[in-house]
Amino acid sequence: MIGVAADAADLSAAREFFELFKTPWESAVPGRRYAVVLSTTGRYEDLDAPVVLAYGSARQPLDDEMHVSIEDRQSDDVVWGDQRIPMYGHLATFDREACGLTVSGKSIQYEARHRTRVVRRIGYDLFREVRHLLTVGQPASRALIPTLDLHVELLRSVLVESAVPFVEVPPRPAGHDFICCLTHDIDFYGIRRQGVDRTLAGFLFRASIGSVIDVVRSRRALGDALRNFGALCSLPFVFMGLMPDFWRPFDDYAKVEDPRRSTFFLLPFKGRPGQSPTGGTDPTRAVQYQASEIAEDVSAAVARGSEIGLHGIDAWHGDDAGRTEMREITLLTGGERAGTRMHWLYFSERSPQLLDNAGFDYDSTWGYNDAVGYRAGTAQVFAFPGTRRLLELPLSIMDTALFAWDRWAMRRGDAWRHCDAVLDHAAKAGGTVVVNWHCRSLAPERLWGSFYEELLRRLQDGDRTWFATGSQAVEWFRWRRSIRFAVTADNDSVRIEAPAPGPSNKGGIIRTHRPGGATRETPFDGAKTYTACLETEPSETFI
Hints:
46% of the residues are buried. By secondary structure, this protein is of the alpha/beta class. β11 and β12 form a beta hairpin. It is elongated and about 85 Å long. The two termini are 21 Å apart. The protein has 4 domains: 2-168, Class I glutamine amidotransferase (GATase) domain (Rossmann fold, 3-Layer(aba) Sandwich); 186-190 and 247-273 and 284-475, TIM Barrel (Alpha-Beta Barrel); 193-246, no CATH class; 482-542, no CATH class. It is built from 15 helices and 28 strands.
């Protein structure tokens, strides 16, 4: 059991941190024996533990007793082995030999024996960093660094190095390394609906002159350019209804993804641009279809196992708007709740609470229009501070961020380096990979389908990936968050309880760490109570 000594203002961030690092903890109680105390206050004299982890950038009593000099820094990268961990608040460097954790070659940690315990002093404010990541998030320049996951990994490493026995529930379903959600924002539904507008003009340019430019710049194969020219020639017949419309996302994705099932986010109303974060409106944000107009196609997609969510217009800034928009989706699906992702990824600091109030099951907006990676620094489903039920399914990889002319406009090799970094982290740390491939992206003029098919092959790679809809992934993490621990007074064993998994029927894993670095993993589905003994010799029982 980890006893946590933190200020009241930091406890909400601590609670969410320990949902991500799912291991036994509690607010530290004087007189109770702990395997380790994690303190962010500098005070731990009345707490009983052989090991103390003293986080904090401000000077602490231990620093005075050890006659340690401190230098204050702010917003710098901490080097940990071959990793760099961005810090967004203050740090303390110490006049000790640089080892383990450093900033510009200076140490931000040291170890001291203080009376009867070993204290590891770490010079940053853990829970304030967590709160920053879950509210402000990371800039696009740091998008590919899973900063919050690295904070979890660092604490896990410190516990192992300190020979502290503990159990955890990693963020991966039993039998898989991570969860992948294939999602699609449906901003357009058929080119025939557009008429003569800005979207059609952009299509004509990119399918003709733009395709030539892409071939010259090695961003597009000649065969794709020829397909675009063919689509241009067919366009009059498409508008006359003599040839099929080539923007048909439900059918196209069903062919490419089968037997995987994806999540489609649909617009509730056509012709509504909604309010922008600056308070104005941008007419180009309005779309030419609405969910109710494609009810038959929606029913067919649901029958194939796809999920339908809301592509919100004004839900991000008003709970009444959120309820109205969600109702347009639930009338089609017959459900009580829905997941959502905001159109153009509009979001504000109030959005989590407003979406929570409106009754959404989850949100999947927290990502980047212009980057690939981790807005909150984690691949895990998480809860924003102040929400009751809403969970966030963080967006990882978006096609337009990679390939759109007004974004990165990457060549395939560069795009793969970014995507592979996300996949490699998921294979190592678990969590989710949430892919957003837009409605038009398999069709002319984008023709990003070959990259998408290769991405699916790399994601598949045996059984390492559980392909789940957004609601299935969130449901699994909701189950993991329901797991409860009961640690004996002598910290020798842990009883682990959880309800049975939901409809997905995916359990998890109990990982037991013992002194000396030995680990043991055991499948766990909550059907029976599990007891892990934290002694040197393995001993587990199900009841």
